[in-house]
Write a structure and sequence with these properties.
Layout (H helix, E strand, L loop, with lengths): L12 H23 L6 E5 L5 H9 L4 E6 L2 H10 L5 E5 L12 E7 L8 H11 E12 L7 H13 L8 H4 L5 H10 L3 E14 L2 H5 L8 H8 L2 H14 L8 E13 L2
Parallel strand pairs: 1-2, 1-4, 2-3, 4-5
Antiparallel strand pairs: 5-7, 6-7
Length: 268
């Protein structure tokens, strides 16, 4: 395990839902509307997590069939509990070695996961391999380098001010390719064509500071993993610094912007 990935804990589905899954559900409808895929297609979702995008595909895109894969058995189990539609199947699998025949799906999508795949180029080649000619490959990732995930950016600003060595753990440092130019380059290198990239922005609203802070204590993801690794005194200092710096509304609620980059391309 690399120094930068040592806090990337993804095994507990419920914790991930509290931290990130709930925001995926806001992004998913906008992403699918932008894709504009016709009904009756065979879909594959790479890195389905706990099923945030999966459910939206079923509800909005009328797929003929749908498969969701993820390396985390915990995530797959939670996704299976949520989605009982007979058109969808879930399985544990590696994005870098997809267990499907070539040209077996019309649409291959991925949500907020490409940056965590060790060999992104290999994963994109695998997506291209199993996508039918004329099909669509699409994904979205957070705009980490642009500070696009406000609630996460605030966390790392506070953490680094208290512990400068944490700078190398922050997503903006780890995933510098998550820009329009970076995503264009990796998709072109994978042989994809007719590439389009757009931004999707949402508001992330928290009822109060505790609603903001609690997901960071659950250990699911880089920032929560770092938070969980701290000794109790250091964690409390971080908590109090964030409480002081996050100005809420009169009712105590906190609203921050979050921005993602979305990419779609055709397979020829």
């Amino acid at each position: 395990m690399s120094i930068n990935s040592r806090h990337d804990a993804w095994s507990t589905g419920e914790s991930y839902d509290r931290y990130m899954g709930r925001w995926s559900r806001y992004l998913a409808p906008r992403f699918l509307a932008w894709l504009g895929v016709q009904a009756g297609r065979d879909w594959l979702e790479v890195g389905c997590g706990t099923g945030a995008l999966s459910g939206e595909i079923l509800a909005r895109c009328q797929p003929r069939s749908q498969v969701g894969i993820d390396p985390s058995e915990g995530f797959i189990n939670l996704a299976m509990q949520k989605e009982k539609d007979p058109r969808i199947n879930f399985c544990v699998a590696d994005a870098q070695d997809l267990p499907f025949e070539a040209s077996s799906h019309d649409v291959v999508v991925s949500a907020l996961v490409l940056n965590f795949i060790p060999d992104r180029h290999k994963a994109l080649l695998e997506m291209r391999r199993i996508c039918r000619r004329g099909g669509v490959i699409a994904f979205f990732v957070w705009d980490y380098p642009g500070g696009g995930v406000g609630f996460m950016h605030k966390f790392w600003q506070a953490a680094i001010s208290l512990n400068p060595s944490a700078v190398d753990l922050a997503e903006d440092v780890r995933f510098p390719f998550c820009t329009r130019e970076g995503l264009m380059k990796i998709t072109q290198n994978a042989g994809l064509r007719e590439i389009e990239i757009t931004q999707i922005e949402i508001n992330t609203a928290f009822r109060d500071f505790e609603d903001y802070w609690q997901p960071f204590t659950l250990g699911a993801g880089p920032a929560p993993g770092y938070c969980a690794s701290l000794d109790p005194n250091s964690r409390e200092r971080l908590r109090e610094k964030l409480r002081h710096e996050l100005a809420g509304a009169e009712d105590g609620s906190i609203t921050l912007k979050a921005r993602a980059w979305a990419m779609r391309a055709r397979v020829d």
